[in-house]
Structures are given as structure tokens and as C-alpha cells.
Design a protein that fits this description.
5-stranded antiparallel sheet, 14 strands, disordered C terminus, alpha+beta, 405 residues, 11 helices
């Protein structure tokens, strides 16, 4: 087959074109049925072909930085005023901050409050004339000088990953002298805050003012075409696996589309998968999923003050019980897609981003790869994330996030 699957992209449809949450590549099978499956397989094919040196493939790859919190910053098109905010600028009643007083009113929690005030103070100097979204990496309070494995680094840990740079390098000198650091990954456009739409993932930042107090970059994954990540044999193997998965997926097209319409079941599937990822597993099982749902139903019945008859309909549980064999096939397909993704991630992780990366294991820090990558379809301006869920998603479920409101 060795080709892309034609499909109508419906990206970001649930958020009106706002990048509030990128989906895991393999989860698109559940989110959007066969269209989501097509998107996942096209993204995998596009990433691999792009890395192999095929310049005709309309896919870009960006690094998924493990920064936090997400910050939206720029000029409000309704009044021409500079603002900062979190994803709450996309709320029905948006929280938009023009002054420190606005930040105190909208975000009183200490950690987030302080970070947004720094963002307001320093990002204004960049003379941003659009609206950008990025992930904060550090400020002068969270940046450290630290020794890891006998080597001195400038470090910062906004979330799960501790990033490290050589203080004597050009990059280390820039970061060491900055008051705040951010990676911008999305640009928005629109006539009002309510109708903002993604203009471009991973936008060019050439128009921003140079600054010694702000270290900023976009998320471009800088590699040379034909870096040797994949041999011709690798490509043949991956394409064969993708073709085989596509043939299997075509046979499950009706099942995928039916499940995607049942949003209650999809929501439960995601909670179930999050649970097994916390336990260090990835492969789901329909019978185990049924037990998970049954336990939730029983718990709800016990919580209610008035006893609910056992024969009371349970639509989600009944749907899964009636379709368990087909759902089990989708779980197996989901796992096959995840395994191919992990293989590609293993290759991507061998290239340097210029930053050291470590995760804490017990009382030690262990070298790791970037949290993940984002595959961007330039034709549809669509994106999905490729993340090692066992390595990073599991940790993200439990890490303390002091910056949250």
C-alpha cells in the first residue's frame, strides 16, 4: 500500500480551533473513528518519510517541550492591548490579564500568579504583534546551578523533565542571563478572542524583538534531512507494519465510527487507559474494561441515599458488554499503533535538541529523551503528539504542579 489514507481532517473541532489539548496519536482511533485512525497512520507515515529525507511529504516535526504552565500572550484584536493569560483566555468568560491587578483577580494562587506577572513584565518587551501560545520553561527563581553525574549544569524543571545546559556554552550563557524562558509553539489569528483560530503550529519568531531578559525559541526539531535515522530496511519494515495495520483498521471502520459517536464510552476508555498506564502497562482488555465499569456502577449505587434497583439501565456498561469482542479488537489495534509509535520515538530520541534531559528515579536523576514530538500536517494545519506514555504520561499523572491555580 505504502500511501497515505485520504480523509477529511476535522482537527480541533471540539475546541473551535484552539490548541488547548493535543491528543495522543493512537487515541485518535477512539476520538474520531476512522477519520482519527487515518490521521494517526498518515502522521506516522509522514514523520518517518520526512525523517528519511522525503521533502515532498507535507509533515513537520516539532519537539514537545515539557514546560508549564501554558501561556497565551499577545495583542487582543478587540482593543489592541497587550495581554497575558493561561488557557482560561479561551473560557466562555475569558480571563484576560492586562495588568498585575487583573492577574491578582483572575489567578490568586501564588505559583501561577507570580509566573504570569513575570510574563506580563518581560514578554511585553518582545513587541509581539500577534497572539502566541507557549510553555514556560524557567524564570530566575526556578533556574538552578546543579551538578549531575559530576558535571556542572544550569538546570530547570518546569514539570516532569529536568533540563540541563552547559553554563559555558552559548546557549547556557543566554539562558543564564535571562529572567524568563519560554518555547512558543502555536500562533492564533481572528477578529475577536472568541473566534481565535490556529494560524500555524510552530510559527516563525523572526519578527520578535531580541532580548537579553527573555530566552525564547519555537519548537522546531532541528535535524538534517537524511540524518541516517532510518535505513531503507527500516523504512520497508515500518511501511509494511503500517500497511498491515491499515488493512486491519479498514475492516474495523464501522466499529470505530460507532464507538466514536458514543462519547460516554470514549471518556471511560480514556480513564481506563490512564489507569493502566499508571500501573506501567499499555495494552487494554475488554473484559478488564468491563470490570472497571462495573466497579464504578457499583460504587455509584452505594453512594446514593435511595437504593437503585439492580436492573436500572446502564447505557455505557451495556454498550461495552454488547460489543466487547469488537472493542477488544480496537484495543489490540490501538496497541499496535502505539508500538510503531514507540519504535519511531526511539529513533527520534537519538538526535540531540541541544539540551540535556533527566528524570528522577528514586534519589537519582537518569538521562532521558525529550518528552515527545508533535507531527504537524502542513496541508490541514493539524497536529498530534507522539509521547512515550509509560515514561512520561505516568509521571505526569502524579507530579506536583505548584503553578496550577
Amino acid at each position: 500500500m505504502n500511501s497515505f489514507i485520504p480523509f477529511l481532517a476535522e482537527s480541533l473541532k471540539s475546541t473551535g480551533g484552539k490548541n488547548v489539548h493535543l491528543e495522543h496519536l493512537e487515541d485518535e482511533i477512539f476520538n474520531s473513528g476512522f477519520a482519527g485512525f487515518s490521521k494517526a497512520m498518515n502522521s506516522l507515515r509522514g514523520v518517518v518519510q520526512s525523517l528519511y529525507g522525503n521533502d515532498t511529504v507535507p509533515y513537520d516535526i516539532s519537539v514537545k517541550w515539557d514546560g508549564a504552565p501554558a501561556v497565551i500572550v499577545g495583542i487582543n484584536p478587540e482593543n489592541g492591548k497587550f495581554f497575558v493569560g493561561t488557557k482560561s483566555v479561551f473560557n466562555k468568560t475569558p480571563k484576560i490579564n492586562y495588568t498585575n491587578a487583573d492577574i491578582d483577580a483572575n489567578h490568586p494562587a501564588d505559583g501561577l500568579n507570580a509566573k504570569l506577572k513575570l510574563a506580563l513584565k518581560y514578554f511585553k518587551t518582545l513587541r509581539i504583534n500577534t497572539i502566541l501560545q507557549g510553555d514556560l520553561l524557567f524564570d530566575s527563581e526556578t533556574r538552578r546551578s546543579e551538578t549531575i553525574d559530576g558535571k556542572r549544569y544550569i538546570t530547570f524543571q518546569p514539570n516532569t523533565i529536568k533540563y540541563a545546559v552547559d553554563p559555558k556554552s552559548h546557549l547556557g550563557t543566554r539562558i543564564g542571563g535571562a529572567k524568563i524562558g519560554i518555547v512558543f509553539h502555536t500562533e492564533y489569528g481572528g477578529d475577536s478572542m472568541a473566534d481565535l483560530r490556529v494560524v500555524k503550529f510552530n510559527p516563525s519568531l523572526e519578527g520578535l524583538a531580541k532580548s537579553k531578559t527573555v530566552w525564547y525559541d519555537n519548537a522546531t526539531y532541528r535535524f538534517s534531512r537524511g540524518d541516517g535515522l532510518f535505513t531503507a530496511k527500516d523504512i520497508a519494515h515500518i511501511n509494511g507494519q503500517i500497511d498491515d495495520i491499515i488493512r486491519e483498521g479498514i475492516g474495523l471502520r464501522t466499529v470505530m465510527n460507532g464507538l466514536a459517536k458514543n462519547t460516554a464510552v470514549v471518556a471511560e476508555i480514556k480513564m481506563y487507559f490512564n489507569g493502566i498506564i499508571r500501573s506501567g502497562r499499555e495494552l487494554g482488555d475488554a473484559n478488564e474494561f468491563l470490570s472497571f465499569l462495573s466497579a464504578k456502577v457499583d460504587a455509584k449505587r452505594k453512594e446514593r441515599k435511595t437504593k437503585v434497583p439492580a436492573k436500572t439501565p446502564t447505557p455505557t456498561l451495556d454498550y461495552v458488554r454488547n460489543n466487547r469482542n469488537q472493542i477488544n479488537r480496537l484495543f489490540a489495534l490501538h496497541n499496535r499503533v502505539a508500538q510503531i509509535k514507540k519504535y519511531v520515538l526511539g529513533k527520534l530520541g537519538t538526535l540531540s535538541t541541544g539540551f540535556g534531559a533527566f528524570v528522577q528515579k528514586g534519589d537519582k536523576y537518569v538521562a532521558t529523551v525529550p518528552e515527545g514530538f508533535v507531527a504537524i500536517d502542513r496541508l490541514s494545519n493539524d497536529a498530534v503528539k507522539l509521547v512515550d506514555r509509560i515514561e512520561f504520561s505516568k509521571a505526569n499523572f502524579t507530579i506536583s504542579k505548584s503553578w496550577k491555580q
